[in-house]
Amino acid sequence: MKTARILAKSLILVLLAAFLFFLFGVPAVNDLTAVRVKNALCALPLPERTERVDAVAKAGKLVGNGNGMQFYGAILIKSDLSEQELAAFYRPFAANEWSCQVARQTTPRIDSIELGTVSFKVSPDSGAFYRVQTWGDSRFVLRDWDLRGH
């Protein structure tokens, strides 16, 4: 009888730990993956006459339909260079067509995010602001168990 009670309590603790891991642990790992994507962008060199103003990271279902996690990182830069010059500068750093994309940024809100809102903390006050963004990936096996991806 005593053994059965210990086993039942152990089973409840294991189930509770698993539930808490899926509820809090998986989203935390996914958030860290998005931060890694952002940090990889921040580690890239800046062109001359350019300064980094802000950076954001987001994990979740951000564009399109269907299920699955997406990992997004972006930096806001202020530059005297044109959008084409910035795109040419970042092109060699792009791992694929979804990384190191350059776009003019005129508001704090990032318009390439369709589902939800992602915004920079700094409000662009002139036409010299650009967003460099990257869509990342994760090798974490349980990444799609995050409810934000559904």
Provide a descriptive summary of the structure in words.
It is a single chain. The chain is of the alpha+beta class. It has one domain (28-149). 33% of the residues lie in helices and 22% in strands. It has two helices and four strands; from the N terminus they run αββαββ. It has a four-stranded antiparallel sheet. The protein is elongated.
Supply database-style keywords.
alpha+beta, four-stranded antiparallel β-sheet, 150 residues
What's the structural blueprint in terms of helices and strands?
Blueprint: H1 2-42, E1 50-60, E2 70-79, H2 83-90, E3 101-104, E4 129-136
Antiparallel strand pairs: 1-2, 2-4, 3-4
User: Stretches where pLDDT falls below 50 for ≥5 residues?
Assistant: none
Percentage of residues in strands: 15-25%
Q: Could you state the order of secondary-structure elements as H and E?
A: HEEHEE
- What structural class do you assign from the helix and strand content? alpha+beta
The major pleated sheet works out as: 4 strands, antiparallel
User: What is the count of helical runs?
Assistant: 2
Gyration radius, to the nearest Å?
20 Å
Mean pLDDT metric: 92
Total of domains: 1
- Spatial strand arrangement across the major sheet: 1-2-4-3
Structure summary, number of beta strands = 4
Q: What sort of overall outline do the alpha carbons produce when their principal axes are compared?
A: elongated
Helix content: 25-40%
Give the CA-CA distance, first to last residue.
43 Å
